[in-house]
Design brief:
two-stranded antiparallel sheet, globular, eight-stranded mixed beta sheet, alpha/beta, single chain, 10 strands
Length: about 300
């Protein structure tokens, strides 16, 4: 009974906090649009504080720990096995997550003969920092990978999949890629965030304006269909039809434009449980061993949503 009451109270607190957030952004959108837009962008780039707590609660799974300097920040790096003497796999977690989110993968990958490297992104887990962005996700991923040479594969979940794609398109050396529920479109992600937070629609399309002025980078240029065609390594994209955070269509978009990619569709797993699903891990291992997994999706101007064959 006490646990039930506690859970109910927690739900009330979360719902009340969200309602107040939406009210603040809705009112601010009209009274102080510039300041509200800045606050919204800062919030968009700030992971949930629970990322750090959950990383500490999960432990390290027996990993050897080290840190990597990245500008003024420190990146927490986890290694299982010796990536300098064994074929190695790079794990890239998603937004508000942490490296040990992949703990269910470590033993199967190690049994298959791989060393494994994970890391906590800036402002996540055991790493330092307060905020981060998709380009920084990709930059940190590439910096970690550069310590060990060519990877047997990079495995990325959600925004980690998007970051892996950007790094691969920019020259990251990996023999294969596995993307689980990958984010394909930062513009669409910003739109979903703006709707969730209650930011006025007339402001939502300007969320990246300040970033683009400062970095001389069009965020739209980071979309998966513009980056995937430049990547030559084979890829397996795994996405669930019931994903409410990153729509299945975003995973399908990767495969339409990535010539050597195939799509494995699941149902009933959503955005998070798909990471731990034993069937997904088994399919990934088959793919790593060179087996054909998933369906090929072909893009055509006359078939904008592609078709499977």
């Amino acid at each position: 009974m006490a646990a039930s009451i506690f859970q109910t109270n927690s739900t009330i607190v979360r719902n009340t906090t969200l309602a107040l957030l939406r009210l603040r952004f809705a009112v601010g959108s009209w009274l102080q649009p510039d300041a509200t837009l800045q606050r919204a962008y800062r919030l968009f780039c700030t992971p949930y504080a629970s990322s750090r707590r959950r990383a500490l609660e999960a432990g390290t799974g027996g990993a050897a720990m080290s840190t990597l300097a990245h500008g003024d920040e420190r990146i927490a790096v986890y290694t299982w096995g010796d990536p300098r003497s064994r074929p190695w796999i790079l794990l890239a977690h998603g937004w508000s997550s942490h490296a040990t989110r992949f703990l269910a993968w470590i033993e199967p990958l190690r049994r298959a003969g791989y060393a494994v490297v994970g890391f906590d992104q800036l402002a996540h887990g055991r790493s330092s920092g307060q905020r981060t962005t998709l380009p920084e996700f990709a930059s940190v991923l590439a910096a970690v990978a550069a310590q060990y040479g060519r990877a047997a594969a990079v495995i990325g979940h959600s925004m980690g999949g998007a970051a892996a794609t950007l790094a691969l398109a920019d020259g990251l050396a990996a023999e294969r890629a596995i993307l689980i529920a990958p984010l394909a479109d930062p513009i669409a992600a910003a739109s979903r965030f703006s709707h969730f937070a209650g930011l006025a629609e007339r402001l939502a399309g300007h969320l990246f304006d300040a970033y683009e002025r400062t970095h001389a980078l069009r965020v739209a240029s980071l979309q998966a269909h513009l980056k995937s065609p430049a990547i030559g390594c084979p890829a397996l994209v795994v996405h669930d039809l019931d994903d409410r955070e990153v729509p299945w269509a975003e995973g399908e978009r990767y495969v339409r434009h990535w010539q050597a990619a195939r799509l494995l569709t699941t149902t009933g797993l959503g955005h998070h449980r798909i990471v731990d699903e034993s069937g997904v891990i088994h399919a990934a291992l088959r793919f790593l061993h060179g087996e054909t997994v998933g369906e090929r999706v072909v893009s055509s101007p006359n078939l904008p949503y592609g078709f499977a064959c």
